[in-house]
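Morning!

This is the sequence you dropped in the shared folder:
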Amino acid sequence: MEKTEKAADRNVARAAALDTATLSDALDRLGIAGQCYRIKPLDPAFRLCGRAFTLLYGPAANPPGTVGDYIDDMPVGSIAVLDNGGREDATVWGDILTEVASRRGIGGTVIDGVCRDVSLALELRYPMFSKDRWMRTGKDRVQVEATNVPVNIGNARVVPGDILRGDADGVLVIPQAHEQAVLEAAEAIEEAENGIREAVRSGMRLTEARRRFRYHALQSKD
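The structure's back. Tokens below.
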């Protein structure tokens, strides 16, 4: 593995060690809109972190195109990122994809839209993040327009290879072009917040601890 690939793998591990709240503050500090609005986990215990493999959906043609046979081409550990334009009347993910993705070691799925067959995802503990759930199929209603292109997930731009991080608070994207700066900022924020906690546990007033560690400026733009 080349040095740059090793660094990329390290950055995924660094992101996985941070929660989305801390990473969100880092994105705010750098003026990056990476928070995916209203995209939430099926189970608050679900976590995901990996690089984006993206799919763009659109309304079905006549005759309709495929809803996607891409799963076998996804790298292990990658995140399936599906842009269905926020549609809530037709799904783009169900139990067959969940089973295959789980067996192949895919890192999770993020959908700007809805999913179905959620019982299997919960049973397999497969990390699923979407706007909502509904049983109506996307077959003959939507089709894949493009694979591995920039997409829109909860008003955040996701480019293939970007890092997706999800937890109980939702999901966000760390743009590959800025991941080093975002991770450094997030790690500094986490260090400061841990310092505040330790100071308070030692008897310091919260007001003083926050002042010492510049709490009110942690997410401010530099």
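Headline: The domain at 33-174 is CATH 3.50.30.40 (Glucose Oxidase; domain 1).

More detail when I'm at my desk.
O.
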